[in-house]
Amino acid sequence: MQPQSNKDKNKSNEWLRVGLIMFTETTGWIAFPVIGALFLGKWLDTKYDTGQLFFFSLTAGAFIISSIGIGVTGLKYMKRIESADRESKNNKEHERRSDKS
Asked: What is the CA 62 to chain-centroid distance, rounded?
């Protein structure tokens, strides 16, 4: 097994960093709206004595917001990955042409 070069290690570290950022953003879209809606809904229901009207309404709204946020985040990273893939292919093509010259 050959040791990894610095360039390979940097690429590996970059993808790990991007993966962790994507995980954090996605988790944030799940956690913050839903948890906020749960607490706010319970508080409003207690304050206005409305049973569980606010609790369920805000939770449903938070679910919709979370779904949209996760979709937008996913699209952003898909475009980023496609761009990186395109750039990688262009670099390989350029290197191949340089080696032939």
From this structure: 17
